[in-house]
């Protein structure tokens, strides 16, 4: 089966400034110690990790590059694509609530390979601490003014946020119906208790009610545990049930998810979990949907 990896990263920290990989002390990270990521990760490394899988394209997602130079990462990726043939397309960096958002989005939209933007809105630490219209959140009027500039520049939006912000995300999707909103990492279901999963499922269902919302199944590692089908099958199946096979994309999140499993383990796990789906449905989730949503030439 051919695969388009809908979410992966490259970086050269010897040549470029990525604060979270270069600065000390390290930031708080959902998988815990991430020191193993503090090395260059380039297409040859990725191809080695992908091993036997026939990855025919990929979507590069911004890597928290130097925020003082958001277009610098796009120039670097343009050169990487010319030399290496990967990635196929890019989701670039822009701070939607910054004064330079209009200029930065125009620069990204003017390329032939940037398909969208990721800017992580400021999250609350728990569901009970969510504040409507908080600065830096999806309800922040300044942030939303930047979001309104995505569609005019031909850009979609990749959203990485805890599931308790998905009601805000639904409002965003409804208010900007001409912008595709793509939820990253399955909505971050870190709490696998029954109560945690119930909250996650309800939030996912709210977002899925917007026809312009999509989901990437990835980022399912649990801190301190190896990645297993037993741990993740329920989450994967419920996400597919909620969004439907035409709005789901599988992704490796490599090299980040290499902290919890090999590429082989994760993709083989997704393969096993979806074994009961039709060939057409599996092709959609592993390849065709990413082609359509991120406009990748097949």
From TrEMBL:
Pfam families: Amidohydro_2. Residues 116-137 are annotated as: Disordered. InterPro entries: Amidohydro-rel (IPR006680), Metal_Hydrolase (IPR032466), Metallo-dep_Lactonases (IPR052350). Residues 4-296 form the Amidohydrolase-related domain. Belongs to the metallo-dependent hydrolases superfamily. This is Amidohydrolase-related domain-containing protein. The lineage of its organism: Bacteria, Pseudomonadati, Pseudomonadota, Alphaproteobacteria, Hyphomicrobiales.
């Amino acid at each position: 089966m051919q695969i388009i990896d809908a979410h992966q990263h490259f970086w050269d920290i010897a040549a470029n400034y990525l604060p979270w990989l270069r600065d000390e002390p390290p930031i708080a990270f959902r998988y815990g110690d991430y020191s193993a990521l503090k090395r260059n990760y380039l297409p040859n490394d990725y191809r080695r990790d992908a091993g036997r899988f026939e990855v025919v394209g990929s979507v590069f997602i911004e890597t928290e590059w130097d925020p003082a130079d958001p277009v610098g990462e796009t120039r670097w990726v343009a050169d990487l694509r010319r030399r290496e043939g990967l990635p196929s397309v890019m989701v670039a960096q822009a701070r939607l609530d910054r004064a330079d958002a209009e200029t930065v989005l125009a620069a990204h939209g003017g390329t032939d390979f940037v398909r969208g933007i990721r800017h992580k809105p400021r999250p609350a630490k728990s569901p009970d601490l969510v504040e409507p219209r908080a600065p830096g959140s999806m309800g922040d009027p300044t942030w939303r003014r930047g979001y309104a500039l995505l569609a005019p520049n031909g850009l979609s939006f990749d959203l990485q946020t805890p599931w308790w912000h998905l009601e805000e995300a639904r409002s965003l999707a409804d208010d900007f119906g001409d912008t595709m909103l793509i939820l990253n990492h399955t909505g971050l279901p870190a709490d696998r208790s029954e109560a945690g999963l119930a909250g996650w499922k309800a939030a996912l269902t709210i977002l899925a009610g917007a026809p312009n919302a999509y989901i990437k199944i990835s980022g399912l590692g649990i801190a301190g545990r190896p990645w297993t089908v037993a741990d993740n099958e329920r989450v994967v199946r419920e996400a597919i049930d909620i969004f439907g096979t035409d709005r789901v994309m599988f992704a490796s999140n490599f090299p980040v998810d290499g902290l919890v499993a090999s590429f082989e383990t994760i993709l083989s796990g997704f393969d096993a979990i979806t074994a009961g789906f039709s060939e057409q449905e599996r092709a959609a989730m592993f390849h065709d949907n990413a082609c359509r949503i991120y406009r990748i030439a097949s």
